[in-house]
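Bit of a strange request maybe. I'm writing a small parser for C-alpha cell strings and I need a real example to test against, not something I typed by hand. Could someone generate the C-alpha cells for this chain?
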Amino acid sequence: MNPYPESYRLAIPPLTSLFMVVWALLTPLWQWLSPADVAGHYPWFLYPLFASFAIAVLGHGYLIVLSPGLKRLDQAFYALVHLPLAFVIWIFAIMQMLGRGW
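Reply from user aminoacidic:
Good idea to test on real output. This should exercise your parser:
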C-alpha cells in the first residue's frame, strides 16, 4: 500500500502543469525533425494540452471534495493559486506549439 497517498494526490495538478511545459517544448522539436512534406501543424498535438488543463481543474475539484472540514479551504486556496498559473502555462504552451508564441 502507498505510505503517503495524500502527497501523491496533491502532486497531480502541478504534474499536469509540468507535462504541459514538457509537451510544448518537445512537440515542435518533433515537427522540426519531420520531413518537409509532412511538417506542419498537426491538431492532434494540441489534444493532450486541452486534456491536461481539464485534468488539472478536475484534480483540484477532487482534492476539494475529498478533503474533510477546514482542509477544504486549504485546497480551495491551493486551486485559487495554481489554476491561474496553470492557465497561463496552458495558453503559452498552445502559442508555442502553434508557432505564434514568444
